[in-house]
């Protein structure tokens, strides 16, 4: 299977430093990162590991649930997944991810709401990014649109 690469260049300490993260494999861009932007409510045009992780998780989950919905007899007409990744203090020191909330809304003719919810929950466990994040609580809000 393919491997993908991202790279971050950083200068300075945690609170006064800043850097750039480049999506090397795709060449899609270079994005500013900083801890002050990471830890405040308004990102002000600066990304964070949590946002990038949310992008990876929402994309991975969308692919996984789409495959499983099709396998279950549905026809996926539209599917939108949001991944909200929390960052907070770690009682052991430093910071940690406080949880990930996946929200999925879909139009899937051929499946009942109950079957959709069942498959959506199964996909949460089957998604490779979810598997990589087993130390983080992942919740799911899934409904047909």
Average residue pLDDT = 96
Main beta sheet, described?
3 strands, antiparallel
Provide the succession of SSEs: EEEHHEEHHE
Strand order of the largest sheet: 1-2-3
How would you explain this protein's 3D organization?
With 145 residues, this protein is of the alpha+beta class. It folds into two domains: 6-38, no CATH class; 49-144, K homology (KH) domain (GMP Synthetase, Chain A, domain 3, 2-Layer Sandwich), CATH 3.30.300. 32% of the residues lie in helices and 34% in strands. It has helices at residues 35-38, 49-71, 113-126, 128-132, and strands at residues 6-11, 18-23, 29-33, 78-89, 95-107, 138-144. A three-stranded antiparallel β-sheet has the order 1-2-3. Strands 4-5-6 form a three-stranded mixed β-sheet. Helix 2 packs across helix 3 (113-126). The chain starts with 5 loop residues before the first strand and ends with a strand. The model has no long low-confidence stretch (mean pLDDT 96).
Layout: helices, strands, pairs:
Layout: E1 6-11, E2 18-23, E3 29-33, H1 35-38, H2 49-71, E4 78-89, E5 95-107, H3 113-126, H4 128-132, E6 138-144
Parallel strand pairs: 5-6
Antiparallel strand pairs: 1-2, 2-3, 4-5
Helix pairs in contact: 2-3
């Amino acid at each position: 299977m393919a491997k993908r690469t991202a790279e971050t260049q950083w200068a300075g300490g945690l609170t006064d430093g800043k850097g750039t993260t480049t999506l090397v494999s795709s060449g899609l861009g270079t994005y500013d990162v900083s801890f002050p932007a990471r830890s405040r409510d308004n990102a002000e045009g600066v990304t964070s590991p949590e946002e990038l992780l949310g992008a990876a998780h929402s994309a991975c989950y969308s692919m996984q649930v789409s495959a499983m919905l099709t396998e279950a007899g549905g026809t996926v007409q539209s599917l939108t997944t949001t991944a909200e990744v929390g960052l907070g203090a770690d009682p052991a020191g430093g910071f940690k991810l406080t949880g990930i909330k996946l929200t999925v809304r879909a139009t899937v003719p051929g499946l009942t709401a109950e079957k959709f919810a069942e498959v959506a929950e199964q996909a949460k466990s089957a998604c490779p990014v979810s598997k990589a994040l087993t130390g983080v609580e992942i919740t799911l809000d899934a409904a047909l649109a």
